[in-house]
Amino acid sequence: MLRGTPFHSRTGALCQSQNWRRWAGYVVAGSYELTHDREYYAIRSSAALIDVSPLHKYMIRGPDAVRFLDRVVTRDVSRCALGQVLYTPWCDETGKVIDDGTLARLGEETFRLTAAEPNLRWLHDNAAGLRMTIEDVSDSTAALAIQGPASREILSGVSDAGVDGLRFFRVTSTNVRGIPVTISRTGYTGDLGYEIWVDSERAEALWDALMEAGGPYGITPAGILALDVARIEAGLILIDVDYVPAHRALIESRKSSPFELGLGWTVKLNKGAGNFVGSKALEQEKRRGSEWQFRGLEIDWQSLEKLYGEVGLPPQLPTVAWRTSVPVYANGKQVGYATSGCWSPILKKYIALAHLQSGHAEPGTKLQIEVTVEHHRKRAAATVTETPFFDPERKRA
Amino acid sequence: MSKEGGADYDAIVIGGGHNGLVNAAYLARAGKRVLVLERRHLVGGATVTEEIYPGFKYSVCSYVVSLLRPEIIRELDLPSHGLEILPLNSTVTPLPNGDYLARWADHDHTRRELYRHSARDAEAYDDYGKLMYHLAFAVKPIMAMVPPDPTSLSPKDLRGLLKLGRHFRSLGEERFHALFKLMTMSASDFLDEWFETEPLKATMSASGIIGTFLGPRSPGTAYVLLHHYMGEIDGAFRAWGFARGGTGAIAEAIAGAARRFGAEIRTEAGVARVTVKNGRATGVVLESGDEISARVVVSGLDPKRTFLKLIEADQLPTDFVDSIRRFKIRGSSGKVNLSLSELPNFTCLPGEGPHLRGAISISPSVDYLERAYDDAKYGDFSRRPYMDIIIPSMIDPGMAPPGKHVMSIFVQYAPSDLKGGWDETRREAFGDAVIDTLAQYAPNLPGAILHRQVLTPWDMERDIGLTQGNIFHGELSLHQLFFLRPAPSWADYRTPLENFYQCGSGTHPGGGISGASGRLAALTVLQDWKR
Amino acid sequence: MTNSYDAIVIGAGHNGLVTAAYLAKAGLQVLVLERRNVVGGAAVTEEIFSGFKFDTGAHRIGALHPAVVRELDLARHGLEVIETDPTVFTPLLDGRHLLLWRDPQRCVESIRQFSKADANQWVPFTQLVAKATSLLGAAYASPPPNVVAGGVRDLWTMLRLGGRLRRLGKRDMTEVMRILPMSVKELLDDWFESDVLKGTLGAAAITGMFQGPMAAGTAYTFLHHHVGVNGGILRPTMRVRGGIGSLTAALAAAATERGTTIKTNAPVERIIVESGRATGVVLECGEEIRAKWIVSNIDPKRTFSRLVHPTELDPEFCRKIRNIKFKGACAKVHLALSELPDFTCLPGNGPHSNGVISISPSLIYLERAYDDAKYGGVSRKPYLEAVIPTVTDSSLAPPGKHVMSILVQYAPYHLKEGTWDDGRRQALGEAVVDTFAEYAPNIKSAVLHRHVLTPLDLEDTYGLTEGNIYHGELTMDQLFFMRPVPECARYRTPIENLYLCGAGTHPGGGVNGVSGYNAARQILRDAKRLGRSSVS
Description:
The complex is a heterotrimer of chains A (397), B (531) and C (536).
Chain A: E1 3-4, H1 8-14, E2 19-23, E3 26-31, H2 37-45, E4 47-51, E5 56-61, H3 65-72, E6 85-91, E7 97-107, E8 110-115, H4 120-127, E9 133-136, E10 141-147, H5 151-158, E11 171-176, E12 179-184, E13 193-199, H6 203-214, E14 219-221, H7 224-233, H8 279-288, E15 292-299, H9 301-310, E16 326-330, E17 333-344, E18 349-357, E19 366-373, E20 376-385
Parallel strand pairs in A: 1-3, 4-14
Antiparallel strand pairs in A: 2-3, 4-10, 5-8, 5-9, 6-7, 7-8, 10-13, 11-12, 12-13, 15-18, 15-20, 16-17, 16-19, 17-18, 19-20
Chain B: E1 9-14, H1 18-29, E2 34-37, E3 49-53, E4 56-59, H2 70-75, E5 85-87, E6 91-94, E7 100-103, H3 107-117, H4 119-143, H5 155-171, H6 173-184, H7 187-192, H8 198-209, H9 227-230, E8 241-243, H10 248-260, E9 264-266, E10 271-277, E11 280-286, E12 291-299, H11 303-309, H12 318-326, E13 333-340, E14 359-362, H13 366-377, E15 386-390, H14 392-395, E16 405-412, H15 424-439, H16 445-448, E17 449-455, H17 457-464, E18 500-502, H18 516-530
Parallel strand pairs in B: 1-2, 1-12, 2-9, 6-14, 12-18
Antiparallel strand pairs in B: 3-4, 5-8, 6-7, 10-11, 11-12, 13-16, 13-17, 14-15, 15-16
Helix pairs in contact in B: 1-10, 1-18, 3-4, 4-6, 8-13
Chain C: E1 4-10, H1 14-25, E2 30-33, E3 45-49, E4 52-55, H2 66-71, E5 81-83, E6 88-91, E7 97-100, H3 104-112, H4 116-140, H5 152-167, H6 170-179, H7 184-191, H8 195-206, H9 218-224, E8 238-240, H10 245-257, E9 261-263, E10 268-274, E11 277-283, E12 288-296, H11 300-307, H12 315-322, E13 330-337, E14 356-359, H13 363-374, E15 383-387, E16 402-409, H14 422-439, H15 443-446, E17 447-453, H16 455-462, E18 498-500, H17 514-530
Parallel strand pairs in C: 1-2, 1-12, 2-9, 6-14, 12-18
Antiparallel strand pairs in C: 3-4, 5-8, 6-7, 10-11, 11-12, 13-16, 13-17, 14-15, 15-16
Helix pairs in contact in C: 1-10, 1-17, 3-4, 7-8, 7-9, 8-9, 8-13
């Protein structure tokens, strides 16, 4: 049966909409209120509390932990400082992305890897002959994201120390009202924010502490619908939506390399440790050039207005982010497909994330995207853009 | 009405089993005058539903639909003749320690459950599923082709071989090698490469031993693991489940289609022999002594019956008769059907629940299955047998009176060549072993039994006409598959006798209610007719 | 002393020595590194008890690759093969016995006492075996073709084999294809009725296998052991004068004569891999030696899990290596005897002790022995293959005394309960002597010394993973282009310039030198292609 997360007693009580979504075998709130608008704005203007417990979490410990991780992920782990967090994908032998997540260095020989999919078997397969252990702590560790401009103040107010000065993509161990936690300055919103990792048994107490402390700042529990809009604005990819994990792709063409997902910056071909899984293929791809690029699309409002105007309607956009594959054209020929998109309330723009053939992916390129206007397929003008769409200074400051 | 050459019919199909009926339906669909002759009072062969105890309906032998070819369902429009396939989605394996292992319809649900036993297995299960999906794809065209004869130099066979060669090359190295392993390994070894949870391996490997005279550690048992995934690649068509009304409803639906196309079906019309003139089949003689002539005769019986009983030995080449004699057809399974006053109450999952609407597998460990095999190897029935159980009345309430239930138990091993031979006493002893074993997992069961039907290979041979009670018309071992099934050079549904064809499970691809043999045989007959 | 060679062969087993000799013959500077203080690997003769010399690993040889014997001039280096006659003696408890001879007619006579029908079937059966093995022999003569993604050479090999198959004629061709995947029991049941004959032939199929005679694929292993054997002879028994160690000594001599350096007591710690290419080895003593070609005669599992760092290999490849089935099934018992065994069914001394003495009264006997092992136990009534080489070669023991070497099956490497400690070891030795004594009661008092190698000992002593004498089971899924894994089936490995030449590669199993020979040819062909060496 589907399970509730360690926060379920709290989220359940708050979920007026009964809009529950499945996430990795758990149920989590899609939205708490009947519409998710307020939850979205909490992320961008005050603070939102988001239950991200369904993430898979693995503790990796041992003298060969760095060597192991350098073998598995594309980033250079040997250069990850104590207390640093790396965002990284990992690939199969052919250089196609299996999953992506964050890797936190909690100790000299201790790391926590988060993943969207179960990865224990893959990790074990790569660990043969190395002196290290992998512990699946997915069930015993709950995770809560506090995201938004007020998150720092709220969190510093309830935690012992270390939050105020915590830099972007750093992690620290501290206590929140006496509850031992680790806090990383990471998130899936592209805003100022933190993720808090806590023993599942203390999850409810942590929730209560943050809700209470955040009250005066307008803290709002947010569901994954609001999160989805925020992550698209931030240009962050979502597994199973923007890419198919290599291990589950039934056909080759469904797989993507990091280069094809806009993650070229995470591929460290010359790391000190030498080869990593997929590095040979990625080296070749880099030399050859990738077939696909992953880009933002900004859909032209006037073009939309015109198409809708023809049937006598104002532009009608979905109220939540969409996650279907939508064809993208250049001069009538399909050159790619968008995999998620939404109306960005903060930017006042209709945006999407798309896979584009390399010849059509230069920022500024004018393309067309399919829109269904009153049961008829039309094409609206769109422009290729860099991501993130939304990148406030406070995110890193 | 065409009565070419004075023949009574264009085609006579011997045996109204599901393959015979499929064959007849396709021939009739092509406009031929077809007569089906069935020895029993009802059609279906081993695909029958019978009300042996008033109010309770048993799918006497075969009990699930798994491999029925989608093209047959489509081309014969079986739904319009009453075929309804109800979902049968879960498999639960009760364990002696009071725990259980389940696989449910929902992916997350199954993963959680497997995770409870082994985190790595939960993940391996998905990867394994993906490989099997690909391998099912690789095998599908082979299942659907008439096997070419590798010793022949005829253009047709060479074309077939070339096609096969190209197909294998198109798979790519990884999948070809995986397929090779699957074809040659034991189910147990193959699964050892993926899993560590004993009941998971046992329950999966059990599908590899069904109907064979092999244990899960015998090489050659792995490839049947694929059967479970063959349904997957038919996408939404998925025909895996329980036929409403029992398996007899499948035979009825096919018979209905055959009749609609104009075929005539005669029951209680056992065939004594096939008449042969100058190396050609010309018709049949019934057990009643009546003679019926036809342009072609197709046998849906197993190869032994077809060639060693219906035909005089001197009408066939000695080599061929030798091959048929050597064809291995040992029966290894039995069936127990129960009428129950109440549902079984499993210690591991007490009360009524979704587990009773799916399959229940008594296969706690590979060793357990292997020991069951050891008994059979030396000529005994398994004291602690493997069982695959469903409760049809939970899926289709029409199978039993309200509040009452029927239970179908497939049992292995029950060797056809039991030491000392089968008789009534031994049959009931076998039935007792089954109930005893089951009572360890569901203690209320013995007290709930209103009626018990036990079928051993001996019964299946006598009642249904399966030689040695082999449910697949011949063992599905590597050396009896594809162009070797049932005999080299005669695996294309033709026989050494002109105008005489074979369409039973003893031909490629054979085994299970798939109808593929019946269909491919019909297409072969029609092709020859054109010439 | 140079610290760099053209080629390093790791392990001086018989295949490694064959490879070394051929590489040296082609003009390469070759170094052979052997962990033990003797060369030979599992083809070695050791004086365990003063004056008594035993073939402690393999105690028979297979059909040596004729080219190897000829081209390396092994006779000049002291190789003398003894082909025993009779080949096999199977004593029974009912007072009868079966003898198989090199002369088919004598076999027929011996078989006739058990079954006239079987006697008549004998010659036709040997003919079928000869046909099937000639086909396999052709397949063994070259690296297995890449069936799926192969090039012209692979296609040519396949066509050649296909041609050989078709030349058998329709009837035999289908028969050969039909029997390959069968169990040896099914094969023998098709031909024979007498238990002892079937048991004795079937035993050849299960030697070294963790399978019983009812397991599919054992018909193939039966044929495997007859490849290269003169037609008409089944279960040939061939030994080497002076012990099997004389064979490897001859190979070593042939190799050194051509300039090969052989270092014993030189265990390799790891293979140096740089940018995906093998460039040398590091010895356990720390010494680093470089070479263009590294050839491992060690079994594939040890090669990749111990000598190569896992991060140099793809995880999928590692998984395949991990999944190679080893499942050691045999143990060895060595007895120093004061007199020859005296068989109740055939008293006195006679030629019956020349060849293999096979305790294999029936297939069921063998299957039951396997049943015990299947659940992790040692066979209560094991299959025994005993040889007394002193009958034909008195140099191996003090005058009047004898040595007897017994291959025992099944003794599973993985025990369900307990481990292979000394208690178990001695119990096994006793059980074997007891079983043998049922047939030859005087054996008990004749034993002067007893030495037992459990599967664990075989692993520790000879580096055979799980004690598997073939470097990996000879099952269908691990043969030809699948042996040991598809990526290494043509002796190459995913690591450039690292090759395999041991029994873990095609065709594998048995002391025949074919793997070593094929591997050397592959290396030389690759070397020529790359133009990296002065190959003649």
